[in-house]
Amino acid sequence: MLFFYLILKAQFIELMKKTLIIAIAGILTFSCSKKEAEKNTEKTDSTNTVDSINAARTKINDSIKALNSKNRFRDFSGSHQFVYQNDSSPKYSGSINFTKIDGERDNYTLSGNIKSGKNSVTLKGFAQVVSAKHINFTGEITQSIVDNDNGKPYTRKGTKTFMSKDGGKTYRLQDMVNGSGFVDYIDIHF
Fold it and tell me: Which CATH class is domain 78-189?
């Protein structure tokens, strides 16, 4: 009886070993393929989440950009009257064009001229409205007026300020003294 018991025990152990090996192989096979499938799902979910966040950020950034390009002050775009006068000459008129720079707040490109016989004034550059009463202009203002040094050209370069004292109807150049030492009145009328 002991002999049968030992034989049965040996067969049982051998059967258990084979069963255990098959079970481990099956578990490893299913667990590896299952993890790979989960990883792909996680990657897809993660990509969708990132795409969703990026879309929301883009929408927010676009709305901020739109607000930042909106003027704080009135819109100066368009053609306006450009006037030159000094104490010894009549008033000369021309036009000046303000073109708003896309995506920028209160910034314009300017170009304008006045022509009357041999007298001329040209203005070309960039303007930034810094308050309801002040426009900073950066560029060149060149004038050739017969009454000033027989029409010798005089150019103002750099940043100059136009200021309004009448609630924004007229902006006058604050750098009023010309190359001859006389006062010039260069105005933009809106």
Answer: mainly beta
- Angstrom distance (rounded) from CA 56 to CA 62: 10
What length is written for the chain?
190
Contact 73, 182 (CB under 8 A): no
Task: Judge contact between 77 and 52, C-beta under 8 A.
Answer: no
Every domain of the chain and the residues it spans? 1-69, 78-189
Q: Which two tokens stand for residue 179?
A: 């190359």
Q: Is residue 171 over pLDDT 80? A: yes
| 96, 118 contact by CB (below 8 A) | no
Per residue in 17-56, pLDDT (tens digit) is 777 788 777 777 766 554 555 555 555 677 888 788 888 7
Nearest C-alpha neighbor of 188 from the set 82, 87, 104: 82
pLDDT of residue 4: 58
Tell me phi and psi for residue 131, to 5 degrees.
-160, 175
pLDDT for 162 beyond 90? yes
Question: Do strands 107-116 and 184-189 pair parallel, antiparallel, or not at all (unpaired)?
Answer: unpaired
Structure tokens at 132: 């309801």
8 Å CB contact between 163 and 171 = yes
By C-alpha distance, which of 158, 153, 154 is closest to 140? 158
C-alpha of 109 from chain center = 16
